Structure formats: C-alpha cells, structure tokens
Amino acid sequence: MTGQAPSITRVTEPRDVAIVAVSQTDSHRSYLEGEPTLIMQCVNDLLARTGLDRDALEFTIAGSCDYLSGMPFAFVANIDGVGAWPPVYESHVEMDGAWALNEAWFRLQCGDIDTALVIGSGKSSPGRPREVFPLQTDPYTMAPLGLDPVSMAGIQARALVDAGLATEADFAEIVSRSRRNALANPHAQVANDTSVKDLLAEPYFAAPLRRHDLPPISDGAAAVILVAGDRAREIAERPAWIRGLDHRIESHHPGLRDLTTSASTALAAKHAGVANGPIDVAEVMVNYSPEEVVLRNALGIPPGEGGAVVNPSGGPLAGHPVMATGLVRFVEVAQRIFDGSADRGVAHASSGPCLQQNLVCVLEGEA
Amino acid sequence: MARRSAVVGIGQTKYSKRAKDQSIDGLVREAAIKALDDAGMTFADIDAIVIGKAPDALEGVMMPELSLADALGAVGKPIHRVHTAGSVGASTAITGATMVESGRYDKVLVVCYEKQSDGNATWALSGGRSGGQGAGGTFAPWIRSYISRSGAPEHIGWKVAVKDRLNALRNPNAHLHLKDISIEKVKESPMLWDPLHFLESCPSSDGAAAVVIGSEEVALAAPTTPAWIIAHAKRTEFGSFPGRDTVRPQAGVDCSAALYKKAGITNPLTQIDCAELYVPFSWYEPMWLEGHGIMPEGEGWKLTDSGATELTGSFPVNPSGGVLSSNPIGASGMIRCLEAANQVRGTAGDYQVDGARVALGHAYGGAAQYFAMWIVSSDPDPVFS
Lengths: 367, 385
Description:
Number of domains of chain A: 2
Number of strands of chain A: 12
Helix content of chain B: 25-40%
Distance between the termini of chain A: 52 Å
Shape of chain A: globular
Number of strands of chain B: 11
Shape of chain B: globular
Structural class of chain A: alpha/beta
Order of helices and strands of chain B: EHEEHEHHHHEEEHEHHEHHHEE
Strand order of the largest sheet of chain B: 3-2-4-7-1-8-11-10-9
Order of helices and strands of chain A: EHEHHEHEHHHHEEEHEHEHEHEE
Oligomer: heterodimer
CATH class of the largest domain in chain A: Alpha Beta
Largest interface: A-B, 70 and 77 residues
Number of helices of chain A: 12
Mean pLDDT of chain B: 96
Number of helices of chain B: 12
Distance between the termini of chain B: 25 Å
Radius of gyration of chain A: 20 Å
Low-confidence stretches of chain A: 1-10
Radius of gyration of chain B: 19 Å
CATH architecture of the largest domain in chain A: 3-Layer(aba) Sandwich
Strand order of the largest sheet of chain A: 3-2-4-7-1-8-12-11-9-10
Largest sheet of chain B: 9 strands, mixed
Strand content of chain B: 15-25%
Mean pLDDT of chain A: 95
CATH topology of the largest domain in chain A: Peroxisomal Thiolase, Chain A, domain 1
Strand content of chain A: 15-25%
C-alpha cells in the first residue's frame, strides 16, 4: 500500500436527473390490506409503464412511518412490496417519500448509477391521527400537553386572520376550489363542488377551522422512477427534469416562529430556483386550508389571473396518504410535464407541526 | 463523478444503562459538539445534518428530526432522517458520505442515538407486541444452525464475549466495564436463548455518536488526520422466505463483495487491518467473518479461536469492545463506522491497533437482512497488493 498526495476534486455542475415514470394508488379512507400491497401496486405499475425489469432499478429508497401503523419496524414489511430478492441496494427514511426522492437525487449525483426507485407509503386509518401526531412534538415540553396537528393548524389559522392576511372566506375558497379540482382526479378521496357560502355555513371544528379545512384520513402509496442523463429520454417521451431541489427546517417551538410566514419554504424555494422562471403548476402540500395562504406567499406564487395553477389535483385536502402525500405532489407535477400541459412546475412537501420543515423542487420539461 | 469524502470529526457520549441527567436533546448535542470540536468547527460551519436511530417507539418520539432541530443547530438548514433497523447507524453514516460525494454539501454533521432507558427495547424489537422473542430469540436458532453447519466448538462464543469485554476496558466510552470477565463467568451466566448466555448478549444502552463528514478540501484543511471514506455499500433482502440462508444471508455476501470491489480489496483478511463488526451476540463474530468473505465458509470460528481477532492479533475485530459492550441501537452501527475511522486516524487511544491504515465498519439489521458497510483509510488512494 503506497500513499499518494490526493488530487483536489472540484464540484461539477449537478448531473441532470429526471422523473421518467410515476404511479400512485387511490387515496383510501381505509385500505383493509397491508401497506406492502399498496407499494406493490405502484412498483408493478411503474415496471409495466416503463418496460423495465426490477433489477434495472439500481437504487431503491422508501419513506414511511412506523408510528402510523403503531408497530416498530413496520417499514421492514414494506420491502415485500419493494421487491428485495435477489438482494437490492436499498435504504429507508422515516420521512415523507419526498425526502426519499431527495436522497435518491444525491445518490444519482455520484455518477456510478443511473436509476432509482423512490417510494412513499402510509396508512393513517388504523390509528387516531390526533392522538398519534402529538408524539412528533418535543417530548419534554409539548407532547405532555397533547397539542395535536388540528389545534396547531387552528393556531396558525388564527394568526393569519388576526394579522389581516386571510379571512375564513379565503380558507373556504381554497377548500371549495381544491375539492372541485379533485373531481377530475381519479385517485382523490374527497371531491365535490361546494360553494364558499355553503362551506361557511358549517360549524367550527377547531375555530377558525371548520371540518372541511382539514385533510381526510387516508391510506395510500406513491412511487416514481428517477433516471440520470440521456437514458431518461429513452424511457420517457418528455421527462420531468429536476432543476432545483432543497429543503429546510425551522425551530420546533411554534412560539419561536412567525406562524403567518414560512421562512423555511421561502429559503428552500430560493435555493431551488423557483423564481428563475414562470411557474405553470404548483402542487403544494396544503394539509390544512390556511397553509395555502402561507405557502403561496413563501413560494412566491400569489393567487390571481395568469399565475400558477395551484393543486389542480385537489392537493392533500382531497387525499392525504401521510408519508406519500409529499411524493404525490411530485407525481402530479411530473404527470403534467409528461403530457405537455405544463412546462415548469413546483412540487412542495412539508413535515412537522405548523409547516416546520419544507421541501421544494422545480421540475421542467424540454421544449 | 463522485467526490471524495472523509471523516474529519468524531464525537461520542459515554454509553450507559441510563443517561439520568440528560435529555435526548442533551445526548445528541453532546456528541455533535464533540465531533464539531474535533473537526475544528461549530454548528455554523455545517451545511446539512443527518440523523439516524432505530424505531421511534424506543423512546416514544415520532420523527425526532423535528424536535431535535434546535438542539442540532439545524434551524434554517436541511435535516434528514434515516431508519434502516439495526443497520441504521452505518446507513446514516453512508447517507452523510453520499451527501458530500454528491457535490451538494461540503460539511455534513451525522448524528445517531438511542435512549433505550426511556422505553422497553425488547418490546420494540418484537415489533411492539407483548410476549415477543426479542432479537436474541430471532438469532439463536440461526446461531445453532451455524454451529451445526460449521462444527464450531461451544467455547467460541464465550471467547468472543470475553475478548470484546476486555477490549472495552480500554475504551472509556464503553457501557460495560466488566473487570473480572472470564470464560468461566460467561458460561456460568444464565442461558437466555440457547446457546446464548447472558454474558454473550449485548447490553441495552443510552448514548449518542456523531461524525462530521467533509469534502476533500475540508479534509485536507482539517486540524486532525482525516479518515478517507474509500468505499461504502448497502444491501437488503426479504427477512423470510423458503430457502433463505439465514446463517449466511445473500445480502451480506453481496454487500461485502460490492464493498471490496469498490475499494479495490481482493483479500480482505490481509488487506484490511482491523474491523468493527456488528456483533450483538457473540457468535456473530465468526458468522460475519464468513458471511462477509473474510474467511471461507466454515472457518470463521477458527480465526476467532486462533486469537487473531484479539487486539494484538493479525485481524483485530471490535477493538473498541463492540456492540457487546455498548449498544444504543440506533447509534451502534455509527459507532462501528466511527471506531473504524478512529483506528485509521490513530485516535483510538488505548485500543489503537498498531499501524492500522485500512479499517472496516459494519452493521446489520432486521432479521439479518439489512447490511451497511464502509471502508476507511488513512490514505486517500490506498493501493492494495
């Protein structure tokens, strides 16, 4: 063994990586079979769509959460759906599948492999989300209070109203539009055409939130295939190229944050280059309707004529398979780039109470 | 092309049965600050943070990257969370290396922890079901199968249990400091899962471990000797199917083969100077020596029996004392990886292997179905002959 003076390697331009195929299950209120079955549906669908063999996918990474099914190591069973024989090069994040996609992007940047399978899956129906999610909060100062996501979203909504940044009618408009959009989404769980007036006539659930301001409880999965370089063009007619990808987190303590803004989304959007061109479509992880107000501002996509279409799928208000919800945003944007209805889009995912952590990706099609 | 990456800072808490005076935040922050100090950095220098731990149910904190963001200096930065069962510590280290190799980040802080005293590890390791068999109950039949296949004598397990605890006496961070450990004591300790005695099993520990992984520029400017990450590999297989070889899982064979190929290693026994293998139960030392191509099938136990895996032997295994002496599960794989780095940096203190230049860090998890490994070296371009 001989020592050598190392040569300095410089950062090169990021490798071009694209989403070439997408799949999602329906958003189910209660899917009675196991989570691996949901995953297998997506994986088999992707293989059929691309004509690729399972062993052509060089790296696999999944996102899921043990706590949703109430079983430590629940993700281990999920590899039954992933397909892991012969053995596969694989990893797992205890995060939304959007963060699995982020890690896959890093891995493909290394240049020695060209293809990756990314999965997100979750079943919220077996538990009670309002009792499970307080376990996300600080175990010493917050979790004992049992502060749940609905109450937290209510606090955020109240901050918006008090600051004069939104009204309850604005929240109802977001719900009305999202669920009307969902009528065209075959995977949506909640789709209807209800007027703002009718929505505002409903009682409060966690004031100023009404029940319709909340996402449904959902089970589901999503998966995408990422391919680097020219191979992407061989598999997809119009790949959805990842042009910018970043995520940031804020303080965990809501009292230390301005809940009317999302500094982490704005920072991630800046690093992802959202403002570098016009945005045709944005799929934004709006779990609670007031979050759309906060996220539009942070992403720099204000409402109004000629702006980006936000959540044409209906967004999480129409279906919220936790741990896949963020990855579904990528699926919806990529689908619109594949079919030519959009040239440049934003996919957004969030995690934690009151939008604590946010991921932003810019996807583009070629002319 | 992937850039080079290197371990430029290492930090560990003392491992213990119960970290009575520390919160989870305190544990991870202590390890992180020690690693940053070692690297000559502060939180402000760090581009991104990765955390890893075993199931959230061990402490009852769901997706703890959220509640630990403040303690880890992550506010305004990316923080990522890995979970690949028992292999998670090594997987997390590999993810950190990948983030640097990708060209995106220059300085990544990687922190793994477990505070097992906050929960019931055997319950959690049984999938959250009461009356579960725990990890020992899963592995014992496969160990019996190994013994039957290899014809290994029963004292091999006792020998590993003593060797790792003697090594731990040299490691101030080790949880177990069993000063009077002996073959007699091991074989007279209660039988937990035949053939595993109490003293052939890992403890349940609290603790955190951290590394700072830097790019080549960062490593060359670091105040201490970097441990260059020469290669890493991961493989996963189903935990149960007819015909599965649970003694020598194919994923482990494939993982080490891919690792050695990437590193340019053709004879691991002679070209690797020491190894930190994930050995939570004594018999896994010979099983992984065979399962990872270091010894031919059926002969791993002979290397152990010869004394070669002792600190002064030709192929020291677990000079730090290993998982048998400290086991904060989510950090245990990371500890293997960072102790391998300690060896090649020459910073292993009283358990330093003389002249170690190339070391293996390894972890496995689930039903011996997840594997994650890396090779580190004091030389950024080791040439093997």
